[in-house]
Design a protein that fits this description.
The protein is α/β, with parallel strands linked by helices. 40% of the residues lie in helices and 15% in strands. The chain has seven helices and nine strands; from the N terminus they run αβααββββαββαβαβα. It has helices at 4-15, 27-34, 45-51, 88-100, 140-145, 163-170, 181-212, and strands at 20-23, 56-59, 71-73, 78-79, 85-86, 107-109, 128-131, 150-154, 176-180. It has a five-stranded mixed beta sheet, covered by helices on one side.
Length: 214
C-alpha cells in the first residue's frame, strides 16, 4: 500500500541501504510513481524518493513481492465520523497475501487496527507481526529514520523475532520493545490519545492566555 505511511517507511528503508519493492493495487498510482509523479506532501519525502528512484521497483503485481525478504502492509485505515474503522482495503491486501505469497516471508502490519485484529487473522502459516508506527505529518520521514523506540507485537511473548526482520530493525539503532499483538495494538492507540491530549491542552492554555493577557 503506497500511502503516506507506505512511502515514508519505503524511503526510510532506502536510506538504510535497502532495495525495495513498492506495491499497490492502483495501477495509475504505480505508473505515476514510476515517472516520479507523487500525490503526497511530506517534508523531504519526494526529494528522497527521486534521489533513490533507481533502487525502487514499483509494481501492481503482488506475486513480485515473493522476491522480498520482508513484506510490510501499510495501507491507511479510514475512520468515519462515528469513529468506525473501515478495514476493507486492509483485509483485501491480507487476502491477496494469503493467496499469492510464500508463507516463509514474514508479514509486518503497520496499519492502525483495533486490539485483537492481528490475532484474529487467518494467516497461521505466516510469521506475522504488528509494528507500531508513530509518524507525525511534517516530521514523518525524520521519525521513521530515527525512531525513539520500535514496538513490535508478536503472537506469543516468548516467540523470537524472525532473523531477517531483526537484522532489518537493528539498522535503525533504536530500542526494540517486543510484546504480544494486543499490547502493541493498544500502544498505538495510547500514543494517539496522548498526542491528541497534549495538543488539546496546549490549545486550551493558549486560549486562556490570550483572554487573561498572560
Amino acid at each position: 500500500g503506497l500511502t503516506h505511511l507506505g512511502l515514508t517507511y519505503l524511503t526510510s528503508s532506502l536510506i538504510k541501504n535497502q532495495e525495495v519493492v513498492g506495491y499497490d493495487l492502483d495501477q495509475n498510482k504505480i505508473n505515476n510513481f514510476k515517472n516520479c509523479e507523487y500525490d503526497i506532501t511530506e517534508r523531504n519525502l519526494i526529494s528522497k524518493l527521486k534521489y533513490y528512484k533507481n533502487k525502487i521497483f514499483y509494481t501492481d503485481q503482488i506475486k513480485k513481492l515473493n522476491k522480498c525478504d520482508l513484506i510490510f502492509v501499510s495501507c491507511d485505515v479510514k475512520t468515519n465520523n462515528k469513529n468506525e474503522s473501515d478495514y476493507t482495503k486492509l483485509n483485501n491486501y491480507l487476502r491477496l497475501i494469503k493467496q499469492n505469497i510464500n508463507f516463509t516471508i514474514p508479514i509486518i502490519i503497520l496499519s492502525q487496527v483495533k486490539p485483537g485484529f492481528t490475532r484474529n487473522l487467518k494467516l497461521n502459516k505466516f510469521k506475522l507481526y504488528y509494528q507500531v508506527e508513530t509518524l507525525i505529518f511534517g516530521r514523518a520521514l525524520q521519525q521513521a529514520i530515527k525512531p525513539k523506540r520500535i514496538i513490535v507485537g508478536k503472537k506469543n511473548k516468548k516467540d523470537k523475532l524472525d532473523s531477517k526482520y531483526l537484522i532489518y530493525l537493528k539498522k535503525f539503532q533504536s530500542p526494540i520493545l517486543e510484546m504480544i499483538y494486543e499490547s502493541a495494538e493498544l500502544c498505538k492507540i495510547a500514543i494517539n490519545i496522548m498526542l491528541a491530549s497534549s495538543l488539546t491542552a496546549a490549545n486550551t492554555i493558549a486560549n486562556i492566555s490570550e483572554k487573561i493577557g498572560a
